[in-house]
Protein backbone atom coordinates (compact mmCIF):
# COMPACT_ATOMS: atom_id res chain seq x y z
CA UNK A 1 0.00 0.00 0.00
CA UNK A 2 1.37 3.42 -0.98
CA UNK A 3 1.73 6.04 1.74
CA UNK A 4 0.98 9.73 1.31
CA UNK A 5 2.27 12.42 3.65
CA UNK A 6 0.23 15.65 3.64
CA UNK A 7 1.64 18.67 5.45
CA UNK A 8 -1.20 20.97 6.42
CA UNK A 9 -3.89 18.29 6.33
CA UNK A 10 -6.03 20.28 8.75
CA UNK A 11 -6.30 23.17 6.26
CA UNK A 12 -8.89 23.60 3.54
CA UNK A 13 -6.81 22.10 0.74
CA UNK A 14 -5.18 19.40 2.86
CA UNK A 15 -8.49 18.16 4.22
CA UNK A 16 -10.05 18.01 0.74
CA UNK A 17 -6.96 16.19 -0.55
CA UNK A 18 -7.33 13.62 2.23
CA UNK A 19 -10.98 13.16 1.22
CA UNK A 20 -9.99 12.70 -2.41
CA UNK A 21 -7.26 10.16 -1.69
CA UNK A 22 -9.52 8.16 0.63
CA UNK A 23 -12.22 8.04 -2.06
CA UNK A 24 -10.03 7.38 -5.11
CA UNK A 25 -7.03 5.36 -3.90
CA UNK A 26 -6.17 2.61 -1.45
CA UNK A 27 -3.29 4.66 -0.02
CA UNK A 28 -2.52 5.11 3.65
CA UNK A 29 -2.63 8.83 4.49
CA UNK A 30 -0.56 10.59 7.13
CA UNK A 31 -1.30 14.21 7.94
CA UNK A 32 1.27 16.48 9.56
CA UNK A 33 -0.40 18.41 12.33
CA UNK A 34 0.76 20.81 15.03
CA UNK A 35 -0.55 19.83 18.47
CA UNK A 36 -2.54 23.08 18.60
CA UNK A 37 -3.98 22.95 15.08
CA UNK A 38 -7.79 23.31 14.87
CA UNK A 39 -9.38 20.05 13.74
CA UNK A 40 -12.60 21.54 12.35
CA UNK A 41 -11.78 20.72 8.73
CA UNK A 42 -11.11 17.05 9.48
CA UNK A 43 -13.92 16.59 12.02
CA UNK A 44 -15.54 14.08 9.67
CA UNK A 45 -12.31 12.03 9.61
CA UNK A 46 -11.68 11.84 13.36
CA UNK A 47 -13.40 8.48 13.84
CA UNK A 48 -11.26 7.01 11.07
CA UNK A 49 -8.15 8.56 12.61
CA UNK A 50 -9.09 7.11 16.01
CA UNK A 51 -9.53 3.67 14.42
CA UNK A 52 -6.34 4.04 12.34
CA UNK A 53 -8.52 3.40 9.29
CA UNK A 54 -6.17 4.47 6.47
CA UNK A 55 -5.65 7.95 7.91
CA UNK A 56 -3.42 9.07 10.80
CA UNK A 57 -2.02 12.26 12.28
CA UNK A 58 1.70 12.82 12.80
CA UNK A 59 2.66 15.71 15.05
CA UNK A 60 5.32 18.21 14.10
CA UNK A 61 6.00 21.83 13.20
CA UNK A 62 7.52 23.10 9.95
CA UNK A 63 9.86 25.38 11.90
CA UNK A 64 11.20 22.53 14.02
CA UNK A 65 13.51 20.49 11.78
CA UNK A 66 13.90 17.64 14.25
CA UNK A 67 10.14 17.08 14.40
CA UNK A 68 9.90 17.06 10.60
CA UNK A 69 12.87 14.69 10.30
CA UNK A 70 11.26 12.27 12.75
CA UNK A 71 7.84 12.53 11.08
CA UNK A 72 9.27 11.74 7.66
CA UNK A 73 11.38 8.91 9.12
CA UNK A 74 8.28 7.43 10.77
CA UNK A 75 6.02 7.66 7.73
CA UNK A 76 8.49 6.66 4.97
CA UNK A 77 6.14 8.18 2.38
CA UNK A 78 5.85 7.30 -1.30
CA UNK A 79 4.14 10.63 -2.03
CA UNK A 80 4.51 13.97 -0.28
CA UNK A 81 2.12 16.89 -0.65
CA UNK A 82 3.70 19.91 1.02
CA UNK A 83 0.73 22.23 1.49
CA UNK A 84 1.33 23.67 4.98
CA UNK A 85 2.11 27.39 5.09
CA UNK A 86 1.27 30.73 6.57
CA UNK A 87 -1.13 31.25 3.70
CA UNK A 88 -2.80 34.62 4.23
CA UNK A 89 -1.14 37.45 2.27
CA UNK A 90 -2.69 40.25 4.34
CA UNK A 91 -1.36 38.80 7.61
CA UNK A 92 2.13 38.59 6.12
CA UNK A 93 2.41 42.39 6.15
CA UNK A 94 2.04 42.28 9.95
CA UNK A 95 4.08 39.10 10.47
CA UNK A 96 6.68 38.99 7.70
CA UNK A 97 9.36 37.07 9.62
CA UNK A 98 6.92 34.40 10.80
CA UNK A 99 5.71 34.05 7.21
CA UNK A 100 9.21 33.73 5.80
CA UNK A 101 10.34 31.27 8.45
CA UNK A 102 7.28 29.06 8.11
CA UNK A 103 7.13 29.03 4.34
CA UNK A 104 10.77 29.20 3.24
CA UNK A 105 12.60 27.46 6.05
CA UNK A 106 9.66 25.09 6.55
CA UNK A 107 9.87 23.93 2.94
CA UNK A 108 13.61 23.45 3.23
CA UNK A 109 13.04 21.40 6.40
CA UNK A 110 10.62 19.06 4.65
CA UNK A 111 12.88 18.49 1.65
CA UNK A 112 16.01 18.16 3.78
CA UNK A 113 14.28 15.58 5.96
CA UNK A 114 13.41 13.56 2.86
CA UNK A 115 17.00 13.83 1.62
CA UNK A 116 18.62 12.95 4.93
CA UNK A 117 16.32 9.96 5.39
CA UNK A 118 17.09 8.88 1.80
CA UNK A 119 13.38 8.73 0.93
CA UNK A 120 12.70 8.78 -2.81
CA UNK A 121 9.18 10.12 -2.56
CA UNK A 122 7.41 11.87 -5.42
CA UNK A 123 6.97 15.30 -3.89
CA UNK A 124 4.65 18.19 -4.61
CA UNK A 125 5.70 21.60 -3.26
CA UNK A 126 2.84 24.07 -3.30
CA UNK A 127 3.97 27.59 -4.17
CA UNK A 128 1.36 30.16 -5.26
CA UNK A 129 0.25 32.35 -8.13
CA UNK A 130 1.06 35.23 -5.80
CA UNK A 131 4.72 34.84 -6.86
CA UNK A 132 3.82 36.69 -10.07
CA UNK A 133 2.43 39.62 -8.11
CA UNK A 134 2.18 42.81 -10.12
CA UNK A 135 1.60 41.72 -13.73
CA UNK A 136 0.92 44.04 -16.67
CA UNK A 137 -2.05 43.51 -18.97
CA UNK A 138 0.18 42.52 -21.89
CA UNK A 139 1.42 39.45 -19.96
CA UNK A 140 -2.05 37.96 -19.46
CA UNK A 141 -2.83 35.13 -19.24
CA UNK A 142 0.15 34.39 -17.00
CA UNK A 143 2.34 31.50 -18.12
CA UNK A 144 5.09 29.75 -16.17
CA UNK A 145 7.86 31.96 -17.55
CA UNK A 146 6.29 35.24 -16.47
CA UNK A 147 8.65 37.30 -14.32
CA UNK A 148 8.20 37.11 -10.56
CA UNK A 149 7.15 40.45 -9.05
CA UNK A 150 5.86 39.50 -5.57
CA UNK A 151 3.61 42.05 -3.88
CA UNK A 152 3.61 40.87 -0.25
CA UNK A 153 5.89 39.12 2.25
CA UNK A 154 3.71 36.04 1.67
CA UNK A 155 4.39 36.20 -2.06
CA UNK A 156 8.11 36.64 -1.42
CA UNK A 157 8.06 33.58 0.82
CA UNK A 158 6.37 31.58 -1.93
CA UNK A 159 9.07 32.62 -4.40
CA UNK A 160 11.48 31.02 -1.96
CA UNK A 161 9.26 27.95 -1.66
CA UNK A 162 9.13 27.60 -5.44
CA UNK A 163 12.87 27.96 -5.93
CA UNK A 164 13.80 25.67 -3.03
CA UNK A 165 11.63 22.94 -4.52
CA UNK A 166 13.37 23.19 -7.86
CA UNK A 167 16.79 23.41 -6.23
CA UNK A 168 16.34 20.14 -4.34
CA UNK A 169 15.16 18.42 -7.52
CA UNK A 170 18.14 19.61 -9.55
CA UNK A 171 20.86 19.39 -6.89
CA UNK A 172 19.93 16.08 -5.28
CA UNK A 173 18.11 14.19 -8.04
CA UNK A 174 14.84 14.25 -6.13
CA UNK A 175 11.44 14.05 -7.82
CA UNK A 176 10.13 17.40 -6.63
CA UNK A 177 7.57 19.44 -8.58
CA UNK A 178 6.21 22.87 -7.75
CA UNK A 179 2.82 24.37 -8.53
CA UNK A 180 1.54 27.92 -8.68
CA UNK A 181 -2.15 27.40 -7.96
CA UNK A 182 -4.30 30.43 -8.72
CA UNK A 183 -7.34 31.36 -6.62
CA UNK A 184 -9.09 28.21 -5.38
CA UNK A 185 -11.91 28.08 -2.91
CA UNK A 186 -14.95 26.22 -1.66
CA UNK A 187 -16.19 24.69 1.59
CA UNK A 188 -13.75 25.01 4.53
CA UNK A 189 -12.10 28.13 3.13
CA UNK A 190 -10.70 30.27 5.96
CA UNK A 191 -12.67 33.38 6.79
CA UNK A 192 -9.68 35.67 6.25
CA UNK A 193 -9.98 35.23 2.47
CA UNK A 194 -12.25 37.54 0.49
CA UNK A 195 -14.87 35.17 -0.91
CA UNK A 196 -15.11 33.27 2.36
CA UNK A 197 -15.48 36.31 4.59
CA UNK A 198 -18.16 37.60 2.20
CA UNK A 199 -20.07 34.29 2.43
CA UNK A 200 -19.69 34.22 6.22
CA UNK A 201 -20.93 37.80 6.57
CA UNK A 202 -23.94 37.04 4.36
CA UNK A 203 -24.78 33.95 6.44
CA UNK A 204 -24.52 36.01 9.63
CA UNK A 205 -26.74 38.73 8.13
CA UNK A 206 -29.33 36.11 7.15
CA UNK A 207 -29.28 34.79 10.73
CA UNK A 208 -29.81 38.30 12.12
CA UNK A 209 -26.44 38.35 13.88
CA UNK A 210 -25.00 41.46 12.22
CA UNK A 211 -26.48 44.43 10.33
CA UNK A 212 -27.06 44.02 6.56
CA UNK A 213 -23.63 45.37 5.59
CA UNK A 214 -20.80 43.37 3.97
CA UNK A 215 -17.38 44.83 4.72
CA UNK A 216 -14.87 44.52 1.87
CA UNK A 217 -11.37 45.31 0.69
CA UNK A 218 -10.32 45.87 -2.93
CA UNK A 219 -13.24 44.92 -5.18
CA UNK A 220 -11.45 45.73 -8.45
CA UNK A 221 -8.84 42.98 -8.25
CA UNK A 222 -9.23 40.45 -11.06
CA UNK A 223 -9.22 36.75 -10.15
CA UNK A 224 -9.64 33.44 -11.96
CA UNK A 225 -11.49 31.04 -9.67
CA UNK A 226 -11.12 27.28 -9.31
CA UNK A 227 -12.86 24.91 -6.95
CA UNK A 228 -10.71 23.36 -4.21
CA UNK A 229 -12.04 19.92 -5.19
CA UNK A 230 -10.71 20.40 -8.71
CA UNK A 231 -7.44 21.63 -7.21
CA UNK A 232 -6.81 18.49 -5.15
CA UNK A 233 -7.63 16.31 -8.14
CA UNK A 234 -4.96 18.25 -10.01
CA UNK A 235 -2.46 17.60 -7.23
CA UNK A 236 -3.16 13.87 -7.35
CA UNK A 237 -2.69 13.84 -11.12
CA UNK A 238 0.52 15.87 -10.73
CA UNK A 239 2.22 13.10 -8.75
CA UNK A 240 0.73 10.11 -10.56
CA UNK A 241 0.76 11.10 -14.25
CA UNK A 242 4.22 11.57 -15.75
CA UNK A 243 5.91 13.24 -12.74
CA UNK A 244 8.87 15.25 -14.01
CA UNK A 245 11.60 16.26 -11.53
CA UNK A 246 12.02 20.05 -11.20
CA UNK A 247 8.88 20.72 -13.25
CA UNK A 248 6.80 23.76 -12.34
CA UNK A 249 3.21 24.40 -13.34
CA UNK A 250 0.49 27.01 -13.23
CA UNK A 251 -2.87 25.52 -12.21
CA UNK A 252 -6.17 27.36 -12.04
CA UNK A 253 -9.75 27.64 -13.12
CA UNK A 254 -11.40 29.16 -16.18
CA UNK A 255 -13.88 31.62 -14.67
CA UNK A 256 -12.42 35.11 -14.41
CA UNK A 257 -14.12 38.06 -12.73
CA UNK A 258 -13.39 40.91 -10.35
CA UNK A 259 -13.70 40.43 -6.61
CA UNK A 260 -16.68 42.79 -6.80
CA UNK A 261 -18.41 40.60 -9.37
CA UNK A 262 -17.75 37.55 -7.21
CA UNK A 263 -19.39 39.35 -4.28
CA UNK A 264 -22.35 40.24 -6.49
CA UNK A 265 -22.83 36.53 -7.25
CA UNK A 266 -22.93 35.70 -3.54
CA UNK A 267 -25.32 38.58 -2.80
CA UNK A 268 -27.69 37.34 -5.49
CA UNK A 269 -27.82 33.98 -3.69
CA UNK A 270 -28.87 35.59 -0.41
CA UNK A 271 -32.41 35.64 0.95
CA UNK A 272 -31.74 39.17 2.24
CA UNK A 273 -32.02 41.70 -0.57
CA UNK A 274 -31.09 44.97 1.14
CA UNK A 275 -27.44 44.20 1.90
CA UNK A 276 -25.09 47.15 1.51
CA UNK A 277 -21.37 46.98 0.70
CA UNK A 278 -18.76 49.07 2.51
CA UNK A 279 -15.00 49.20 1.93
CA UNK A 280 -12.83 49.12 5.06
CA UNK A 281 -9.30 50.49 4.87
CA UNK A 282 -7.90 47.74 7.12
CA UNK A 283 -9.01 45.13 4.58
CA UNK A 284 -6.84 46.69 1.85
CA UNK A 285 -3.32 45.42 1.19
CA UNK A 286 -0.47 47.96 0.93
CA UNK A 287 0.20 46.42 -2.51
CA UNK A 288 -2.19 44.12 -4.34
CA UNK A 289 -1.60 41.43 -6.94
CA UNK A 290 -4.61 42.56 -8.92
CA UNK A 291 -4.40 40.64 -12.21
CA UNK A 292 -4.40 36.92 -11.48
CA UNK A 293 -5.36 35.17 -14.72
CA UNK A 294 -3.53 31.90 -15.50
CA UNK A 295 -2.39 30.08 -18.60
CA UNK A 296 -2.63 26.41 -17.57
CA UNK A 297 -1.83 24.87 -20.96
CA UNK A 298 1.44 23.29 -19.82
CA UNK A 299 -0.12 21.37 -16.92
CA UNK A 300 -3.15 20.32 -18.94
CA UNK A 301 -0.98 18.95 -21.74
CA UNK A 302 1.16 16.92 -19.32
CA UNK A 303 -1.67 15.46 -17.21
CA UNK A 304 -4.95 15.87 -19.10
CA UNK A 305 -6.44 17.72 -16.12
CA UNK A 306 -9.18 20.28 -16.63
CA UNK A 307 -11.39 22.01 -14.06
CA UNK A 308 -14.88 20.52 -13.90
CA UNK A 309 -16.81 22.32 -11.15
CA UNK A 310 -18.63 25.51 -12.26
CA UNK A 311 -18.02 28.78 -10.45
CA UNK A 312 -21.68 29.01 -9.42
CA UNK A 313 -21.52 25.64 -7.66
CA UNK A 314 -18.34 26.65 -5.85
CA UNK A 315 -20.01 29.81 -4.55
CA UNK A 316 -23.23 27.96 -3.69
CA UNK A 317 -21.35 25.33 -1.70
CA UNK A 318 -19.20 27.96 0.05
CA UNK A 319 -22.29 29.90 1.15
CA UNK A 320 -23.99 26.67 2.25
CA UNK A 321 -20.92 25.80 4.32
CA UNK A 322 -21.11 29.09 6.20
CA UNK A 323 -24.88 28.93 6.63
CA UNK A 324 -24.50 25.51 8.23
CA UNK A 325 -21.80 26.74 10.63
CA UNK A 326 -23.67 29.92 11.54
CA UNK A 327 -26.97 28.09 12.03
CA UNK A 328 -25.23 25.59 14.32
CA UNK A 329 -24.84 28.42 16.79
CA UNK A 330 -21.09 28.90 16.55
CA UNK A 331 -19.69 32.32 17.41
CA UNK A 332 -17.44 34.06 14.89
CA UNK A 333 -15.31 37.16 14.63
CA UNK A 334 -16.76 39.69 12.20
CA UNK A 335 -13.54 39.83 10.19
From TrEMBL:
Keywords: Lyase. Pathway: Nucleotide-sugar biosynthesis; GDP-L-fucose biosynthesis via de novo pathway; GDP-L-fucose from GDP-alpha-D-mannose: step 1/2. Gene3D superfamilies: NAD(P)-binding Rossmann-like Domain, UDP-galactose 4-epimerase, domain 1. GO terms for molecular function: GDP-mannose 4,6-dehydratase activity. Its cofactor is NADP(+). The keyword tRNA-binding does not apply. Pfam families: GDP_Man_Dehyd (PF16363). It catalyses: GDP-alpha-D-mannose = GDP-4-dehydro-alpha-D-rhamnose + H2O. PANTHER family: DTDP-D-GLUCOSE 4,6-DEHYDRATASE-RELATED. Catalyzes the conversion of GDP-D-mannose to GDP-4-dehydro-6-deoxy-D-mannose. This is GDP-mannose 4,6-dehydratase.
